[in-house]
Amino acid sequence: MANRIAVVGIGNTLRRDDGIGVTVLGSLLSLYKRERIDYLDFGSASFDLLNRMSSYDAMLVIDGIEASLEPGELKIARLEDITYDLKEAVTSTHGFGFSTLLELYKKLGAKTRVYIAGIQVADTSYGEGFTPQLADKKEEITGRISAFIDTVLLKGQ
Question: What is the pTM of this model?
Answer without folding.
Answer: 0.86
